[in-house]
Specification:
The protein has a single domain, classed as Recoverin, domain 1 (Orthogonal Bundle), CATH 1.10.238. It is an all-alpha fold. The chain has eight helices and no strands. Bound molecules: 2-acetamido-2-deoxy-beta-D-glucopyranose (NAG) (3 copies). One 2-acetamido-2-deoxy-beta-D-glucopyranose binds next to loops. The site of one 2-acetamido-2-deoxy-beta-D-glucopyranose has 3 residues, from loops. InterPro entries: PBP/GOBP (IPR006170), PBP_GOBP_sf (IPR036728). Residues 1-15 form the signal peptide. Keywords: Signal.
Length: 144
């Protein structure tokens, strides 16, 4: 019986999460901080909700700071403000080390924290095929 169960369920276990699955998990992860981060950043709740409905990222500077606030609260950042890759990996289905690597190099250590974590998050959404409007921003990470 166990063998049959495994054979039946294996395809489901191996299946990649769909973009819709990933979006749903992300929305659930950040929901507790929506009001707090809207307050702190001054971003409009309507702009925030519109972005996560469509994954067409708002370019509003306040929205960019809302993303930084989200990253601090999940938390995706160490207390010193740098990104904690281990915390990001697997926090949402499909967010693997390989996906993160594509975004950390260009956008992981930007001097402007609001723009940087916004661009990093946008990049992850692009790599995961969540968004139809891709990021159009030059790399800004500081070389060490
Ligand atoms: C956000 O601001 C509103 C209006 O000032 C306030 O009522 C609410 O408690 C604040 N929420 C959080 C989570 O800070
Ligand atoms: C920030 O903190 C993390 C974890 O303690 C550490 O690995 C990293 O080197 C620190 N980065 C800076 C720029 O201080
Ligand atoms: C995103 O879409 C491209 C083109 O269809 C595909 O090659 C790639 O594997 C997809 N990425 C993910 C993470 O599903």
């Amino acid at each position: 019986m166990k063998v049959i169960y495994l054979l039946v369920c294996l395809p489901a276990l191996l299946a990649q999460p769909t973009p819709e699955d990933i979006k749903k998990e992300w929305r659930e992860l950040i929901a507790p901080y929506e009001e707090l981060c809207a307050n702190e950043s001054g971003a409009d709740i309507a702009v925030i909700r519109e972005t996560w409905d469509t994954f067409v990222f708002s370019h509003d500077p306040a929205f960019k700071c809302y993303i930084w606030c989200i990253y601090e609260n999940i938390p995706y950042l160490y207390p010193n403000g740098t990104i904690n890759i281990e915390a990001v990996i697997g926090s949402v289905d499909g967010v693997t080390n390989e996906v993160i690597e594509k975004c950390i190099e260009p956008y992981g250590t930007c001097p402007d924290k609001c723009h940087g974590f916004w661009a990093f998050d946008h990049c992850l959404s692009d790599v995961l095929n969540l968004t139809t409007v891709k990021l159009d921003a030059p790399p800004c990470s500081v070389r060490k």
